[in-house]
Design goal:
By secondary structure, the chain is mostly beta strands. The chain has a 4-stranded antiparallel sheet with strand order 3-2-6-7, with no helix packed on it. Strands 1-5-4 form a 3-stranded antiparallel sheet, with no helix packed on it. Strand 6 and strand 7 form a beta hairpin.
Length: about 90
């Protein structure tokens, strides 16, 4: 019998120079593949100015059932999509 309970997960994205907004689209959201904006925290800054040399960590929490799921990140409002390096695709 397959486990149908939902489990918490946190998707994270960070990359030098990445700026808000960052979105995630996934096969486990409702509706599937609808981009959702990630939350973020500023993790470092050379001068506490959000526009100069700031680094951010982006994240979003979800509840999902066990299984194989796909997701990708969209950087900004355009059509620039990235996958997380080191994660099976």
């Amino acid at each position: 019998m397959q486990d149908t309970r939902e489990h918490p997960i946190r998707l994270k994205y960070s990359h030098p120079g990445a700026r808000p907004p960052v979105y995630v689209a996934a096969s486990f959201t409702s509706p599937p593949w609808q981009p959702l904006e990630l939350d973020y925290v500023q993790v470092s800054s050379m001068n506490n100015d959000l526009d100069n040399m700031s680094e951010f960590e982006f994240f979003k929490d979800f509840y999902v059932t066990e299984g194989h799921w796909q997701y990708k990140f969209r950087l900004g409002p355009g059509d620039w999509w990235v996958c997380r390096e080191g994660v099976e695709t």
